[in-house]
Write a sequence for this structure.
């Protein structure tokens, strides 16, 4: 049986794609307008973001069919301490690219990917936790993310600098040794996912030193969204 550089064997991968096409045709395409209507109603009723009922229903169906967390790379698919039924198929990047192409055929951006728990920034955040998280961090944050019970956000961009260059990041992270805490001061914006009522954890990039090579002055912290001092000002829109 042929394989694809450590990913799924080719026959198993073709079967997975066929199952995903079936899910698209039976569940995603027929519900696109309902998803749009429910999302609009939620947006008009509140600035808080939460899952439309149809999305909750389709998440359950996708998970039951094994169309779940397909993004998780082959080198991270076996996550210690995590139920293996929730960690995806262990695809290569090439294989997952084909999965994304199929999910992207929905006329509503990310509808299918959301149903299959394959949307950013959760995907990247879960990869970080799977590869580098401690056992406690995986238990507290990775497991509920993989199970689709919570969401996460990534805070990098800042309002006064070109934040695509991480060396420009200026939000301050200092260590209060007396209290055993990190102290964060500054402002972030375009924190993808932060406005969701389901968002429980943030990965924040900040500056932890001002000396040495400019590419080694930054660090990332896991910041629970209920941490005192976090203020969500408003949702931001792209028109």
């Amino acid at each position: 049986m042929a394989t694809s550089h450590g990913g799924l064997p080719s026959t198993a991968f073709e079967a997975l794609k066929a199952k995903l096409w079936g899910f698209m045709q039976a569940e995603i395409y027929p519900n696109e307008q309902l998803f749009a209507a429910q999302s609009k109603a939620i947006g008009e009723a509140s600035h808080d973001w939460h899952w439309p009922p149809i999305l909750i229903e389709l998440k359950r169906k996708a998970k039951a069919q094994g169309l779940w967390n397909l993004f998780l790379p082959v080198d991270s698919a076996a996550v210690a301490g995590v139920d293996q039924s929730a960690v995806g198929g262990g695809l290569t990047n090439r294989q997952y690219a084909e999965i994304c192409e199929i999910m992207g055929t929905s006329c509503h951006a990310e509808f299918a990917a959301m149903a299959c728990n394959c949307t950013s920034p959760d995907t990247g955040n879960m990869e970080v936790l799977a590869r580098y998280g401690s056992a406690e961090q995986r238990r507290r944050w990775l497991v509920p993310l993989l199970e689709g019970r919570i969401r996460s956000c990534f805070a990098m961009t800042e309002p006064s600098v070109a934040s695509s260059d991480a060396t420009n990041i200026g939000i301050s992270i200092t260590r209060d040794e007396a209290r055993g805490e990190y102290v964060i001061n500054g402002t972030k914006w375009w924190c993808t996912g932060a406005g969701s009522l389901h968002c429980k954890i943030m990965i924040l990039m900040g500056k932890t030193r001002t000396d040495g090579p400019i590419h080694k002055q930054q660090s990332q912290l896991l910041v629970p969204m209920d941490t005192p001092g976090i203020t969500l000002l408003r949702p931001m829109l792209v028109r």
Notes: Helices lie at 10-28, 32-45, 53-64, 93-103, 111-115, 122-132, 135-146. The chain has a mean pLDDT of 88. The radius of gyration is 19 Å.
